[in-house]
TrEMBL record:
GO terms for molecular function: diphthine-ammonia ligase activity. It comes from Aeromonas hydrophila subsp. hydrophila (strain ATCC 7966 / DSM 30187 / BCRC 13018 / CCUG 14551 / JCM 1027 / KCTC 2358 / NCIMB 9240 / NCTC 8049). Residues 3-212 form the Diphthamide synthase domain. This is Diphthamide synthase domain-containing protein. One of its GO terms (biological process) is protein histidyl modification to diphthamide.
Amino acid sequence: MSRVIVLWSGGKDAMQALCHAREAGHQVVALATFAPPAPRFLAHPLSQVHRQAAALGLPHLLITIEAPFDLGYERALAALKEEWRLDGVVTGDIDSVGGAPNWIRERCRPLDLAVHTPLWQQSREALLADLLTRGIVAHLSCVDTQVLAPEWVGRTLDAATLAELQQLAASRGFDACGEQGEYHTMVTDGPGFAAPLALGRWQVARQEQLAYLLEDEG
């Protein structure tokens, strides 16, 4: 049984990758989020990511990366490999972004760390159907308003929403899984969750062309 960490954003792809890793017999020892100094993630607020890890009963590692980022990632991964006795890392990557090589695979290559990408280049229709089959509950947490209207923010990816999303993707020519940044998601339930997470009080906020869920701290 290989010891792995799952690179964790809190979205649907990371959740599906976690499920696949466990089914493949890997021992998932932690969830890891790489972040710049003083991070502010619009699509995946760290407060929610911490709650997800707690619900899954896994340690959450927030790892600060500074420039130059290629060396920063490699040093951090090397330290994780030693501290957690890792054999590999698992990612929810589905495809190359902008035609670039897979970032994590390139960073792990000199470290002799295996990279597991169970969703890689799978059918988008199959991946989205898998969410329903597994009982993964995900909400659109951020959208590019040049692709999807702000009203999509907060919608649950249920059967009706997934059907509508795939129809739009087919007609407009964007990635139905959001792999090129068309949208991002936030998981609130799924296999391994001790209990579903409540979204609580959120509002839709805007930053340039992005619309996203902003947690109401009041």
